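Researcher: Here's the sequence for the chain we discussed earlier.
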Amino acid sequence: MAICTECDEEYSDRRLALGYRVCLDCGQEAAEREILFKATCTAPAYNKGGYMYVSSAKMAKDLGR
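Model: Thanks. This is the structure I predict for it:
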């Protein structure tokens, strides 16, 4: 059994083989934090570019410079 780097609990070796270093519970917490952060951001689409998350007014003013 593999050991989670966040909470020191054991988790499946198959999950480790997929490249995950945290258990399902810690992974879910991190995913929820990321979802909440991105929900407060704006992601404008560019003609030939990828999405860029804009998380503050200062970042929006500096965009495209």
